[in-house]
Amino acid sequence: TEGRLAEMSGRAGSARDAARASSATLPAEPAAVLPAIDFASEDGYARLERLRREAHPRHRQLIETAMAYSEALRGKSPSSRPDGADGAIASELARLVRGEPGAAEPVAQGLAPNFALFDQVTQLRARAAWASGDAAAIPPTFSSVLLLHPRHSQAVQLRAIAIALAPETSNELIPRALDHLSGSERATVVRQLALLSPSRAALFALQVPEDQRTGEEHQRVLLAGGGELPALVDRAVARPSDPVIAAIASRCLAEGQPALARKLLEKATPALQGDLTLAIAIAEGDVAGVAAAGGDAKLAVSTPLARPGQIALHIATVSGLLPRTGLEVRIDGKTVPSDRIARWGSLWLLDGPGNGTHTVDVLVGGQPAWGGRVTL
After folding, report:
1. pTM of the predicted model as reported, rounded to 2 decimal places
2. Measured CA distances, 30 to 26, 42, 60 (Å)
3. Strand ranges (DSSP E) for the chain?
4. How far is CA 16 from the centre of its chain?
């Protein structure tokens, strides 16, 4: 009987015409009538009611299960709940058809469900998991569909998705799981997988054929590439985009390599260049560059301390930047050579002239920023 119900649940094809003829000949025989019924229609349910009245009592349980199945397919809770596992499955089927969320009803152990009911529920569970984007529910529901239908028309896609989303699948196995998908099909599937599993979005983007990747996918692949920073900068320069440039430049500056960030600067759009220029100038301690980029380059200079032949003073911007370049110190109008300046953080120690009172000027980008008189 379960085999007959399985036939009527969607695989009748041309056999249905023969079934209708048999049904007309044997109107009270379930084996002849059931394969000819459209269970999803009101007329089909009415025919089941008539069959229940006309058939032998020994067929009642089978017919009532078929009636519950018909009601559930139309989103109605079964008016007569079948015995055993079929009752719970029919109720769940009705809920799934209505599109209502909720957990499956528990089924008592050892009670085998009707195959047609179980098959329909299994497919609807998988469909609901996919439609709702429930990444945790997709692997078990898709696996159940494959277990019932190993030759399913979409078996390759179902298997790839189930494996790729399973939490126990290692990153190394994901490319192998997707190997059997064709190019355009592969791109479609992995893009959906990236939405379902954001933590693996970069890995899935890597599975899209390079000539089919979107700009965002190229960014994900590039940013997830790892490796040495110079090589990463070269890849970003070869395929520039502002989000990638900003991310990699930030890493360059964090690792103390502003020169690499400058390689990215010329590939940035004007919208990003201003902010990036300022960030590089700050990282380099280039006060003149900060000022040119519109940053806060106002200096805070301490009162100089002097002793014969040396002048000490603290120099920083009011925002806390410690100048390393772009700053010029003059004593009596003459620039102090860099080899006569020692620095420790904000402290500058100048080898000064002999005794007497001298004029000290601090310039940023050639413009006076501070000046005062110092007596040695």
Report:
1. 0.50
2. 9, 18, 10
3. 299-301, 305-307, 310-317, 327-331, 334-335, 341-344, 347-351, 357-364, 367-375
4. 46
